[in-house]
Amino acid sequence: MRIAIDVMGGDLAPAAPVQGVLAMASERPDVSFVLVGDEVKMRAVADVPWPRQVTVLHTDSVIEMDEEPARAVRRKPDSSLVTAARLVRDGEADAMVSAGSTGALVAAGLLVVGRLRGIHRPALAPVLPTFSGNGVMLADAGATMDADSHNLLQFAVMASLYSQHVLGIANPRVGLLNVGTEPGKGNAVCKEVYGRLAASGLNFTGNVEARELLSGAVDVAVCDGFVGNVVLKLIEGVGLGLFGALREVLTAGMAQKLAGAVLKPSLVRLRNRFDYAEYGGAPFLGVAGGCIKAHGSSDARAWRSALRQAVRFVEQDMVQKMAQGLAHGVEPAREENDK
Fold first, then answer.
1. Signal peptide position in this chain (predicted)?
2. pTM
């Protein structure tokens, strides 16, 4: 097994990805890792002997966060992100991981790696933290803004398979993110896909409201990328604001500081439960290879989690499982020029 890493993507690059890879290499000596990026910068942040299964593919070009994704992928074919994607496409790597531009990863997945047979629109599917500690997979979180009922059904099939085989959930509960729990709620797409999900053979539990997501009501929440991205950013913002407010309250005076000292172990456990580093990265479901998007501010620990997820993806042969699941459970999507 060989995993390609875009070492130049992310807020803490190249130090965090290199440190994460070195830690993962000691954990899994049977896995090979190819670090794609500026070799001089990589060596500078980890001036230690590297394991034999860690190799470097040097490239000078980097896709910056403010670049238009599709244009950057086309204009920078030798960038670290596109080079990693090309390794997956050419069979020289089984999966890739990047903490760089989400849009660029999506574009590279579509333009370089390519789609699975029958897939028209892929989905980006992060696992959101829940109060129960199990997490909920959100499909889609921003790859397909205007999904139709067929796209949503495919998202549900792929996310359910991923939850089962990579996350270890025996019979994932699938919910349709909606404005109410009744079957007749929502827009025309939600009403149409409700019946298709109910007849799909998945463990479909019906509509789920956004307020129920963090309670662990479902294991997979299906929605289009516009809704999913709004939900994702809202949860991130609320989490940051809440813990910031708690810190402010518990440091306001001597009495509050004493109370904070008593509560600190419990607060640390609560914070860790909602730490993205525990959940790895977001798989890009529907492309013909393993593409994992790590959080942009991933530290070495978060990178290690994302790499574990990539390894598990390959070990479970998820590309083949999703292809088979789509072939047997969902009719192929029509191409744009066939409509």
1. none
2. 0.87
